[in-house]
Protein 1
Amino acid sequence: MNATVEQFEFQAEARQLLDLMIHSVYSNKDSFLRELISNASDALDKLRLEAFRNKDLDVDTSDLHIVIDVDKEARTLTVRDNGIGMTRDEVVDLIGTLAKSGTARVRQQLREAETVGDADALIGQFGIGFYSVFMVADRVELLTRKAGESEATRWESSGDGTYTIASVDDAPQGTSVTLHLKPEDAENELHDYTAGWTIRSLVKKYSDFIAWPIRMDVERRSPADDEGGEDTVTVEAETLNSMKALWARSKDEVSAEEYAEFYKHIAHAWDDPLEVIAMKAEGTFEYQALLFIPSHAPFDLFTQDAHVGIQLYVRRVFIMGDCDQLLPQYLRFVKGVVDASDMSLNVSREILQQDRQVKAIRRRLTKKVLSTIADLQSERPEDYRTFWTQFGRVVKEGLLSDFDNRDALLRVCSFASTRSDEESTTLAGYVERMKDGQDQIFYATGDTREQILRSPHLEAFKAKGYEVLLLTDPVDEVWVQNVTEFDGKALQSVARGEVDLESDEEKSAHEAEREEQEKQFADLIGWLKETLGEHVKDVRLSARLTESPACLITDAFDITPALARLYRASGQEVPVTKRILELNPDHPLVTGLRRAHSERAQDPDVAETAELLYGTALLAEGGALDDPARFADLLAARLARTL
Ligand code: ADP
Ligand code: MG
């Protein structure tokens, strides 16, 4: 029946994963069945959709289903569907390799997971669905024929690093996967998957909600009738799952386990969701939504091809996955299903973009997700922390794009602050703790907490006991430009504009001293403006320094160097903006420079000291020098003279 059998090697990463699966100590070996059924169900969804879109496709979609066959003698289990099937190339591409986007990460994780003991964690982390069959089987055959094609493909592997592929002439359309089962091993949670009741209970447990019938043949023995003769045995196909769409049932009818299994199916996840959101809208636009907040961020959350988690159904019919119109980008980690009542089955992505109904659904879902996060925050702080650690960076992207929900977004955000090393704070918490007379929310941005804490900008805030938010995500640098206030309190960068931390009393007490200093330093400042004119737009005395000699400040409406770097990295042109040099009039380097300048204004050494002072201020905040080599030369020459 078939022609040549070709042998292939698994792609390296796939091979390592297979190895992991074969020697798996993963306790939940049963889940292989959920994975096979999940794939079969996806294939049936795809076929129905394809048949609907492509009227030329000559397929019978009147009885789409999944069949499970067991053979006790041969110890095989087969899961068969009459879904979309795969071409030969697709088999090589989809089964022979791992999802491309994940390979780099998988490779790294595999290198780190030296022992099989780490398998649980690893298996949980990747949607490595199909390969899970090798937890329970020594050998696996897959026979598949794509809808609309005549040639079929047989794939076979023992999970030993190679697989074979052959073309086959006659095969039913769809896919069947046959497992040659390993011996039963109850100690290692390897059950007897040829036992009808095992299969029945696994399907019930993991796959009850699957929208397609999952059938299995059962033998029914009718006892011989009164007139003697033999018992009659009939074989009947029994449907194992209820096929009830979970989103159509009310929340109190569905158990947490059922939700979790459904989540695993649609999200291709192996762990439980952090939170379930079930919604039902009636009225103008009727729809039901079942959304999940995952407990772990997927590895591709920040890549270009990050998956969007929402599937669109219309009256129980799967229409599309990755439906990016139903939630904003910054909620792309939310998984789930939206089932709309009054939409055309023919709806396309293009139509969705314009659709009023879709916009209304999107608004509602967004608000609901944000209010759910707010509830987590107030009711389940531990889970909220998990959530924020995993997804906070993504949620903050919303501060840039979603003006309507800005306040709700700001309320669910939390930030590190100078108040505590471990605990972060909400903005509301910060405002509650604000000092008498404080009317601004102070924040500092930077690469790391440590770097910000050592920056000269923070000195006066520390000395006077003001709390400062420490913002270290790249996105923070951007949103603080757009968000100017919270709860009527302005957001103020410690490294921008003027700061005023003194009370009125302190101010009047210092006024005379201040005026005196302005006079004393007027000459030096005038000269520094010229000498450093290439680097800074202004020089002034500082109210924010207590220990360092100088620091650099971004003018109130200028762009910060970090933001300029971000823009440049994304290919945009940004003009160089000069900053303001602030001097600490009490620092010996500054007073010494003033004296030196008044005595030897023409001495090139004095100008060099000014340059070094500027460079030091830049380094102290973690900035980069324009000409590091020159700075190093000047410094080395200076140091040599001190020896
Ligand atoms: P995932 O389901 O997360 O994509 P899997 O390892 O479970 O990962 O499956 C890999 C791919 O193989 C699927 O995305 C699908 O394209 C294809 N596939 C697997 N099983 C089937 C099937 N029964 N019918 C059609 N395609 C399938
Ligand atoms: Mg799968």
Protein 2
Amino acid sequence: MNKFYLTTAIDYVNGAPHIGHAYEKILTDVIARHFSQRCDNLFFLTGTDEHGIKIQKTASANGISPKELCDNNAQKFKEAWKALDINYNRFIRTTDEDHKAIVQKIFKKLVENGDIYKHSYEGLYCSGCECFLNEKDLTEDGLCPDHLKKPEVVSEENYFFKLTKYKDAIIKHIKENPDFIVPQFRANEVLNQLEDIQDISVSRAKTNVQWGIDVLDDPDQSIYVWIDALSNYITAIGYDTETPSEQFKTLWPADVQVIGKDILKFHSIYWLAILMALDLPLPKHIFAHGWITIDESKMSKSLGNVISPTSVLEAFNLQQPDAFRYYMATSAPCGRDGNYSDDDFKEKVNAHLANSMGNLLNRTLSMLVKYFDGEVKEEFFAAKNDELVAGSLSLLKESLGKIKVVENHFNHFEIAEAAQEIISIVDAANKYVTDNAPWTLAKEGKMTECGQVLTTVLEVMCIISALIYPYCPNIAAEMARQLSFDISKKLDDITADEIKAGKLISKEEIKPVFLRLDSELADKSAKK
Ligand code: MSP
């Protein structure tokens, strides 16, 4: 794998980030960190979607300019992603000058090629969706089914994009590439939506929408939402209608574009058509994740249950985001909806990260210090007891084999499923310790055997630290430090021979990698 380019949806900035936005960015960051363990040239793009009527209205309701509103809120997104250790390469804002200039050129090219035409139109516009709706999609009371608001009747002369021209090619692409839409069960939804697609409006009259990118040569029209927003995926890496950058040539097409299920239609229909019209290759996968509910209820301002991701870190006195990242990334099987609840969060991370994984490392290193003054002796590697050697080889083989299993899950964007495999190694290693009782071996004076068991577990912990790194980068780095393991190693280079003979650790250097939530220690360390 010589490059990996992945993107998230760009978030609307008419408010602060919530846990749903965070879910997507965490999932994508986990995917990015995993693939950075398999490739040297990875690029991770995220950002904010800043134009449109909704922003214009919110800004005017707050008595500030749209730009001021965008600046304030884009900053909140950046701060939240920093707190969650989202390690993106570029944060694009659709108000960035380089983006705006290329969007104008893209629009111009599409007009010149005959893919965009001007047309008088009357339609029902929902500013919540930032799109025109068909009458048949409304509720019985004539409301937008997602926003439960009456759409405005808009009568304008707009530019239209010839979506219908690409209908057959899109259907063909989806049918011929069953892994293009992830998860596959969503492909049928898209094929159904394709049945009755129409050309789409891609501009709004300046008299109605001022907060947008001007159409070149026709400044009475603003380029409206989707052409502006979707193009971010190519403008961010240097696309140009005349001379695309070297970076663009290397990175495009995207390896995966991560979005929520609600905007799959825009990505698997509109976006494909735009790319086809620009004669550009199509992304390899569109991964549509499910939605996060709060205590099993839809998050909404009216229910007052919108949670900001940083408020969770604060509520639990978390100095690092690892536990929250782990919980969110594993909250739902691939593409399904997930849920956040305080109690479940506490229970899951205490069980997995503190009791099973952290404790295993802590116990093993403490025994190494207690029985061997923290030293891994040469003789631990020399096989003596056949039964013990067989058990340890089998655990090592199973753990190494899981690297490929985890990689395979990631190839299909099965992030929670991959984590389950990692936890299954932790469980197997815990069972191995219980079965072989190194403390009993020590009591019986079987010191080499005792050392052999501990070394096997430490070896497995190296593999676990590498595999858990995408979810919990700080915890993994701390585990690796205590194991003297190089956490930046590529997955392919990991062997069952990472632990070397010699002094590994002293008593003072051992510390819990994750403190149980609500534990006294966690409270004290937070106060420090
Ligand atoms: N601006 C558009 C996307 C343009 S991409 C070229 C948009 N913005 S959004 O702020 O409404 O949503 C951004 C992303 O967050 C979307 O992928 C959306 O699915 C996701 N989520 C918003 N609420 C969510 C949950 N409650 N749960 C999970 N993801 C959610 O759409």
Protein 3
Amino acid sequence: MTPNLSIEFFPPQTPEGADKLRVVRQKLAVLKPEFFSVTFGAGGTTQDRTFDTVFEIRSEGHEAAPHLSCIGSTREHIREILHRYRDAGIRRIVALRGDLPSGVGFAGELRYANELVEFIRAETGDHFHIEVAAYPEYHPQARSPRDDLLAFQRKVAAGADSAITQYFYNPDAYLHFRDECDKLGITVPIVPGIMPIVSFSKLARFSDACGAEIPRWMRRKFESFGDDSDSIRAFGLDVVTGLCEKLLAAGAPGLHFYCMNQSGPTLALCERLGIGA
Ligand code: FAD
């Protein structure tokens, strides 16, 4: 059975970037993803670009899921955004707390993602399918693994329909997290977020910032390739293919690709997995 796929973009910053993303989207559409999601910058800087990208995806006939974060925002502003999406026929939202850009002092009226989910339900009832974030290796600011799990449970209790995880390279982390959720009676689908590996140095920087672990054996091997980008790409493809195979064999309900606005790595991965096209 083909697993449900979804693919995440960030909003392009320039007209050239938007042109490039149109081509990327066309190529990725052969995978027949359930939806394309578009990230949202807390603090206001990229928000219009999120709208533009979402509406364009929708006008091409694909399901688009905007991300929406609440940090640094007001209820009134979030209400406006929700109504704009609802009026445009958007049916799915990825609801997040977000991270404040440095220098932004106002924390916002909703403090955590569970409050945002609650607000979306209060404002728009069952209109939206709400996705939330989950962290198999735990969120870096969580006081403890237990607290993070309970925070996830609150998001589901507030009305989230399903979850997408932060990316990870250790399948046991996902399987353990799923068992812990089972024990708490959390039954929503938890879709693993998959980050294809293209550049090790970029991945290492990014992973440190968001608390995703690159296992030592992988790190050592990537480092041994130096600047040999072909070997990095080939090894990255092997590792991530193996990860996806294990997750799907263990019953993961789908895969969400952090494609970084590139089609090649995600297409190569799906070809190796024998899914899509
Ligand atoms: P929350 O679920 O609110 O959790 C945040 C932290 O607070 C956790 O440590 C949690 O344990 C803790 N916590 C929760 N409730 C409480 C409480 N009551 N008391 C004390 N602590 C509490 N960021 C963006 O800016 N834009 C995006 O588009 C975006 N898309 C993302 C998509 C996915 C699939 C994922 C996994 C992440 C995404 N992020 C995005 C990053 C995300 O915004 C950050 O990880 C952010 O720091 C946490 O958001 P959250 O929704 O998980 O927050």
Protein 4
Amino acid sequence: MEPYEREALEAVTTRPVHPYRTLTVERITPVLGAEVSGVDLSKEIPAEQLDEIRITFLDHHVLVFRDQTITVEDHKRFAAAFGELRPVNPPPEGDPYILEIRTTSAAANVAGNGWHADGTADTEPSLGSMLYITEIPEPGCGGDTLFANMHLAYEMLSPAMRSLLDPLTAVHDGAQALGNYTPPADYVIPKGEHPLVARHPETDRKLLYVNKAYTSRISQLSAQESQALLDMLFDTIACRPILHCRVRWTPGTLVLWDNRCVQHHATYDYYPYTRYGQRVAINGGPVKG
Ligand code: SIN
């Protein structure tokens, strides 16, 4: 490991631990994710506990709440504690804020089966997403979700690479993420341009803001240069386990992740079995450079 990589890692692993009064917080890895217990999401969450959940969200970026039995209204109430709810695009038939994540053996597409953050092609991408899984594949496992820490992805790059990336911007194109999925005729494909190195709006910490699903082009470079640099960055995100944590679902687990600084990848290792959950997303603002 290079000295700058050690330094970046040490800053994360030795960060101070908050003394929580109303929660138990257990890290998943030293760099990403935490299992949070002591919370009942089917009830109105007391203000002090909500404040502590917000602190731990900024600290760990991926929060796992197990053994929850919640209604759609409970789910939306918890999401609304973090910001305005984000309507599903294209609008679903039922509740406009509930995205059903359903995989059956007949599914032509598996949602989220590749590294991405939600909604980055929008001019104002999503703040975060909350996925509540109620049905897991029949073997009792499979369908784990992987997450990657984009602060650390940036901080572990060499100083020379960080200086090259800092002033750049990149286009995020919803068309690239469609693959072989044909959207409804009235779906307006989103496209936006964002800083390649962004700052978290709440902590001001820098992070790498490109993802393989949506980022199509670095604006200031030639097509060939852009592709080479993006491929290197996508490989860095996908191939460095040090950046990752992995959540194994059990029925009744709700996971909240921060789309501003984390990418995720749903693993499709359970064909022909079924997995089902519902996701609510939270609106964010413009990406800060
Ligand atoms: C997604 O939001 O991309 C789906 C994640 C998952 O199904 O685990």
